[in-house]
Structure formats: C-alpha cells, structure tokens
C-alpha cells in the first residue's frame, strides 16, 4: 500500500463580543450583520485535525472526536469542493510545486478532535471548520485568503482563521465574495487582556446555532432591529475600544451585546433559552463586583449555551478567580455550581 500524505493542524476557538446571529443566505452562509471576536490562545480551547490523502483511499471520510460522521454533509462538501477548486486553479496556473495532479484526485481521510465540549456553546463549529479548511489547504498546497471557505463550513469559523481581534465584514455582494474575516488588531496589541472560560455545562445544547438563528430570523423583530440599527454603530464603537485598549468601553459593549443576543433568543417564537440559573448568577456576580469597585473591571459574554466567557485585565484575575471559586465551589452537589475552572487565563492567540 502506498504511504498516505499526512498533515496535522490546530485552530483555536474565537468568542464574539459583537455577535453573529442570523443569515441572509443559508447556503453561502452570509450573515445579516457584521461581527467581531477575540481569538483564544492556540494551546487553550482548540481543534486538532489530521488530513491524510492516499491513492488507496476509495472515498472521502471524516471522524469527529473518534466517531465516523456523514461525509456528505453539505457544509463539509462545500469546504472540500472549494479547496480542491483552488488547488486545481493553482495547478492550472502553472504552480506545480504546490501539489501534483495525482494528489488532487486523491480522496481524503479527516480526523478531528476538540479538546473541549462539542456543541455546548463554546464555538466548536468555529475552531472545527477553521481547522478543517486550514488542514485541507495544507494537504492540497493551497495558500492565501481562506476565511471565505471557512465561512461556508460555519459562519463563526471565518473569524478563527486569524488571531487577535477579528471582524467578519458582512459584505453586500450576492455571491458572498466580500463576506470575509479581517484582523482588526493582532494578539500582541493588548497583552494584558485575559479570558476565563467558566464551564457551566458540557452538555450538547438543545437547539443548535444554525437552527436557532433560522427561527430567530423568521420570528424576531428585535433581531431585525438589532441587525439594522444597533450592530453597525456598535461595530464602530467596539473597534474604537479595542484600538484604544479602553477596557471599560470594551467591557460594557461586550456585556450589552451578549445581553441583546439573548434577548433576541427570548424574542424568538417559540423562545430559545441558552442561559440557565448559574449563567444568571455569574451575570449578577460580575455586576456586583464592578459596582463594588465603582469601575468596570470584568465583563461576561455567553454564546449559544450557558457557559460564561469572562474578559478582564491581568491584574484583576487572581481576585476574580478567587471570588468565583468562593461562590461556585468546584465539584459541589448539583447543577447550582460551576463544576470547575478548567481553563487557565492566557493572552489571546497568535495567528494560525
Ligand atoms: P458550538 O456552539 O459548539 O459552535 P454549533 O451548534 O454551532 O455549536 O455547532 C456544533 C456542530 O459543529 C457539531 O455538531 C459538528 O457538526 C460541528 N463541529 C464541531 N466540532 C467540529 C470539528 N472539530 N470538525 C468538524 N465539525 C465540527
Ligand atoms: C452565538 O457560526 O455556530 O456563537 O454559521 O450556522 O454554523 P452557523 O452558526 P455558528 O453561530 C455562532 C453564533 C454565536 C455568535 C458568534 O459566534 O458570533
Ligand atoms: Co457554532
């Protein structure tokens, strides 16, 4: 048997501080508003994907967290098709160093593992599809702008193609060619910024992001208002806060945006509840903490799940962690308590 050609890559998750929720085109994954996120450090919450190509493989196959999944999934097929198209284009343009034609016709076996809960509102689809697209590109010798392909795997994945502070510009072309991610500032821009992930529940969420936002687009007029009249200005303010390293402004915008996203979930009919009682207790704790000091030292953000993502500055980490451990002691009885703090604080990440 011929030896397979193997590449392995990792990609980190990103947490949106101006959230994406809602598509104007389901197939191309084009959003109804722009969004902005912070990419975590590479050695924290991440996906590791291995791609093997071989003449002896009869078909494309994929395993996720050790279990074989359906390779005909349309989003997976979009990513595979687009990477192969770019590889063919490169080859036809005379760049034969990238990959040879025999390599191009070979089937792939993909093996992907997340080191954190999948589908629990911790952006597994973002790290997962960013990693998939990057690994496939490496395997087929493709370089250049890849966020437009990652977007077609999962919208939020386009932002994980870059490190630091990243915006996904919604674009306005019908073919989606201008709906891309762009780095606003690199990770090195704000080294004091810290992110804590408080895992409230590692369970799969009852309503996935894709179907949740579909129902929201169909039924929530708050979502329409948010996309048209709130987010455009908020994006500008957020970029200003990030560029100026204005933590108080960054934190306030982050919390307001998370709250408005969850308000649109409640405004969806039938309503979607991603936050639980522990999430609400974390929200209260953050506001009490900030009120105590008379300044905004800590912010929270929740994606489509109950798990809290905390933003703060390096100098406040020990005290805040101490307080969380006091109010939510690890491994105590039942769901009322945060089960642990598995992720230590780190600066945000380098580019892939
Ligand atoms: P999350 O909040 O974790 O992003 P989503 O509902 O957006 O949850 O997406 C979860 C889905 O993303 C999974 O059911 C799976 O289809 C896909 N996914 C997660 N991790 C990976 C991965 N490593 N490789 C490919 N697809 C993945
Ligand atoms: C709440 O990118 O997971 O995390 O594009 O359908 O795959 P699909 O959805 P996904 O949605 C992410 C929603 C969010 C906010 C965000 O990351 O911006
Ligand atoms: Co997701």
Secondary structure topology:
Elements: E1 5-12, E2 14-18, E3 23-25, E4 30-31, E5 35-39, E6 46-54, E7 61-64, E8 67-69, H1 74-92, H2 101-105, E9 107-114, H3 124-139, H4 147-151, E10 165-168, E11 181-185, E12 193-198, H5 209-219, H6 221-243, H7 247-267, H8 277-293, E13 298-302, E14 308-313, H9 317-327
Parallel strand pairs: 7-9
Antiparallel strand pairs: 1-6, 2-5, 3-4, 5-10, 6-9, 7-8, 10-11, 12-14, 13-14
Helix pairs in contact: 1-3, 6-7
The structure holds adenosine-5'-diphosphate, ligand DP6 and cobalt (II) ion (CO).
* Helical segment count: 9
Distance between the termini: 33 Å
Low-pLDDT stretches? 333-352
**On the 0-100 scale, what is the average pLDDT?**
91
| Ligand types | adenosine-5'-diphosphate, ligand DP6, cobalt (II) ion
Secondary structure tally: strands: 14
Order of adjacent strands in the largest pleated sheet: 1-6-9-7-8
Shape: globular
Largest sheet: 5 strands, mixed
Tell me the fraction of residues in β-strands, as a range.
15-25%
Q: Helix coverage percent of residues? A: 25-40%
Question: H/E series, N to C?
Answer: EEEEEEEEHHEHHEEEHHHHEEH
**Whole-number radius of gyration?**
20 Å
Quaternary form: single chain
Structural class: alpha+beta
Structure characterization notes:
By secondary structure, the protein is α+β, with helices and mostly antiparallel strands. Helix content is 36%, strand content 21%. The chain is built from nine helices and 14 strands. The protein has helices at residues 74-92, 101-105, 124-139, 147-151, 209-219, 221-243, 247-267, 277-293, 317-327, and strands at 5-12, 14-18, 23-25, 30-31, 35-39, 46-54, 61-64, 67-69, 107-114, 165-168, 181-185, 193-198, 298-302, 308-313. It has a five-stranded mixed beta sheet. A hairpin with a 4-residue loop joins strand 3 and strand 4. Helix 1 runs parallel beside helix 3 (124-139) and helix 6 (221-243) packs antiparallel against helix 7. The longest helix is centred in the middle third of the chain and has 23 residues, at 221-243. The two termini are 33 Å apart. Mean pLDDT is 91; it is low at 333-352. The protein binds adenosine-5'-diphosphate (ADP), ligand DP6 and cobalt (II) ion. Adenosine-5'-diphosphate binds at residues 47, 64, 112, 114, 118-126, 128-129, 132, 154, 208-209, 303-305.
């Amino acid at each position: 048997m011929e030896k397979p050609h193997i590449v392995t890559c990792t990609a980190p998750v990103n947490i949106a501080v101006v959230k994406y929720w809602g598509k104007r085109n389901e197939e191309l994954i084009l959003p109804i508003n722009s969004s902005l996120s912070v990419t975590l450090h590479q050695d924290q919450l991440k996906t590791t994907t291995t791609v093997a190509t071989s003449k002896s493989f009869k078909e494309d196959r994929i395993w996720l967290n050790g279990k074989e999944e359906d390779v005909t999934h349309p989003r997976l097929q979009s990513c595979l098709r687009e990477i192969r198209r770019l590889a063919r284009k490169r080859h036809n343009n005379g760049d034969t160093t990238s990959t040879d034609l025999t390599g191009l016709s070979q089937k792939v076996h993909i093996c992907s593992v997340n080191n954190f809960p999948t589908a629990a509102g911790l952006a597994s689809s973002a790290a997962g599809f960013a990693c998939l697209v990057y690994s496939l590109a490496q395997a087929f010798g493709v370089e250049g702008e890849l966020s437009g392909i990652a977007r077609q795997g999962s919208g939020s994945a386009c932002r994980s193609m870059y490190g630091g502070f990243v915006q996904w510009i919604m674009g306005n072309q019908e073919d989606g060619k201008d709906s891309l991610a762009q780095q606003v500032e690199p990770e090195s821009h704000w080294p004091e910024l810290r992110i804590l992930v408080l895992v409230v529940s590692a369970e799969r969420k009852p309503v996935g992001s894709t179907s949740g936002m579909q129902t929201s687009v169909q039924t929530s007029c708050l979502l329409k208002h948010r996309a048209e009249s709130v987010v455009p200005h908020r994006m500008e303010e957020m970029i200003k806060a990030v560029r100026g390293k204005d933590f108080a402004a960054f934190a306030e915008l982050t919390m307001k945006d998370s709250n408005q996203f969850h308000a649109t979930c409640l405004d969806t009919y039938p309503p979607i509840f991603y936050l639980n009682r522990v999430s609400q207790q974390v929200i209260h704790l953050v506001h009490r903490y900030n009120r105590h000091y008379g300044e905004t030292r800590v912010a929270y953000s929740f994606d489509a799940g109950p798990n809290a993502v905390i933003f703060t500055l390096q100098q406040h980490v020990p005290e805040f962690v101490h307080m969380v451990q006091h109010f939510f002691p690890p491994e105590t009885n039942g769901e009322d308590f945060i089960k642990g703090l598995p992720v230590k604080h780190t600066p945000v990440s380098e580019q892939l």
